[in-house]
Amino acid sequence: MTGLAERLTGKRPLVLDGGLGTMLIARGLGPGEPPESWNVNRPDDVASIHRAYVEAGSEAVHTNSFGATAARLGPRGLAGRASELAAASVGLARSSGARFVLGDVGPTGEYLPPVGRGDPAAWRRDFLALGRALAGAGVDAFHVETMSDLREALVALEALREAAPSVPVLVSMTFEKKPRGFFTVMGDGLAPALSKLARAGAAAVGANCSVTSEDMLALASQARAAVQAPIVLQPNAGAPRLEDGRLRYDQAPERFAEDMVEVRALGVEALGGCCGTDPRFIAALRRGLE
Question: What are 117-133's pLDDT values in tens digits?
Fold first, then answer.
């Protein structure tokens, strides 16, 4: 079977899944409740979400391990179970029948001084532990997502490549559209960030979260001009609004799909959704691409 890295260079785009948090919240995930805890407390719910995405047309699904690090789980008293929860997430994703399972790796939530108290050495330990747990359970690739600091993204990339040298690593930053272009909240520009990640060995680079599918069109054009590496893009389901204490997204799946078909026409290799998207969005995207 073709590996993930080879699949990204194929003629057909790789269709990813959509928002996992969106689906978990719809099933009752409470505010502040670690999504990763559902891998052992409510595994059937997690598995059924993965299956719903595969049935909608996802060729690759992400594990429920975005925050499976000691940094994120520690405040909930689950730091010692991070590797257990990460490993459990792989089996649940694999049970969906997806062709590829991507080990999801999110930021630690700790910024470097003077903004926060982040420590690159601690970052590295967390990413090494998560990478080893995910690789040991059999992921096809890692996907580092929603990174707002290029320095943390590079630490994660290096640590994951050390944890499992044969497992490809995709890296997505999260950018905001500014008058001068696309930047992370830490000031990392789109083209320099993606270029550095590609040179550091990422199998694919790109963006997720923060931007809408409409803005992703402009971002995709700039990303394609910046790097020769495969590109992965996962926008939100439109702009969020706060309602009853929760973020709501109002974009129609068909409009999302229309924009993403145009994104594909720019040469983007992997497409999916982020916050607010669900299997309806992936089904519409699959129809549009076909």
Answer: 999 999 999 999 999 99
Q: Is the dihedral of CA 102, 162, 171, 131 positive or negative?
A: positive
Give the CATH number, domain containing residue 8: 3.20.20.330
Domain around 285:
4-289
Sign, CA dihedral 183-222-179-215, equals negative
pLDDT of residue 22: 87
d(CA 59, CA 10): 13
In this prediction, residues 14-33 reach a mean pLDDT of 94
- Measured in whole angstroms, the distance separating CA 59 from the mean position of its chain's CA atoms is 15
- Total domain count, the chain: 1
Q: ω before 114 within 30° of 0 (cis)?
A: yes
**How big is the chain, counted in residues?**
290
> What gap in Å lies between CA 37 and CA 65, rounded to an integer?
9
Q: With 70 as the cut, is the pLDDT of residue 227 above it?
A: yes
Cα 159 off chain centre by: 17
Q: 253 exposed, middle or buried (CB, 10 Å; 0-12, 13-18, 19+)?
A: buried
Dump the DSSP string for 100-120: EEEEEE---S-PPTTTS---H
